[in-house]
Design brief:
71 residues, mainly alpha
């Protein structure tokens, strides 16, 4: 929740809200693009962390299996 609020504030400060109480189409598009870029980046980081975690688990399981077979 804090992450989304922070991204929203950052994107809003970069994209708009400077001309009154409503956003024009350019500001709305800028906000959508800004939020999309950050959400894509968050997904990439999450995927990378999950892959690293899974690799660690597989390596650990493989090592335990190898120990059981060899010893």
């Amino acid at each position: 929740q804090n992450l989304v609020q922070g991204i929203t504030k950052l994107c809003f400060s970069r994209c708009g809200g400077t001309r009154g109480d409503t956003l024009d189409s350019g500001e709305r598009q800028c906000l959508a693009n800004c939020m999309g870029r950050y959400m894509d980046a968050i997904k990439e980081v999450g995927d990378a962390l999950a892959a690293k975690h899974n690799k660690h688990l597989l390596t650990k399981e493989w090592t335990e299996d190898l120990k059981r077979v060899c010893y």
